[in-house]
Amino acid sequence: MTISIADTIRLIEELLPTLDNAYWESSHIERKDTLYDTISIFHIELRELAKLSIEDHYLTFEPVSTGARNISYKLRNIQNQLDSWSLRNSTSEQLRHQLPRIAQALSREL
């Protein structure tokens, strides 16, 4: 399955507010560090994608920044630990829905 640059941008833009909510709801510094790092990586990726011409947004997405190419481990870690993170139900459910979609988009095996 392939995903366009425009669709990936939408996925990241949907995920960022959810990650931000998770950051503020988390009470552990290690979790906050993981979430902050993940948020930063996605902001960098969006900045890099913003440099592309709008005519290129239909092309197949490939991660541009080094962080986005290597973030799969962090995403799996967040996803696997959601139940123990004591987040609001709505935030947990949004992450359960969004994380697999963005992980698939970032996968090099598209």
What series of H and E elements makes up the topology?
HHHHH
The largest pleated sheet is described as: none
* Helical content band: 55-70%
The low-confidence parts are none
By DSSP (H or I, 4+ residues per run), the number of helices equals: 5
Please identify the oligomeric state. single chain
Q: If you compute it from the alpha carbons, what radius of gyration comes out, rounded to the nearest whole angstrom?
A: 14 Å
Structural class: mainly alpha
Question: How is this structure best described in words?
Answer:
By secondary structure, this protein is mostly helical. The protein is 68% helix and 0% strand. The chain has five helices and no strands. It has helices at 5-25, 29-50, 66-69, 72-81, 89-106. The protein is elongated and about 40 Å long. The N and C termini lie close together (6 Å). The mean pLDDT is 91.
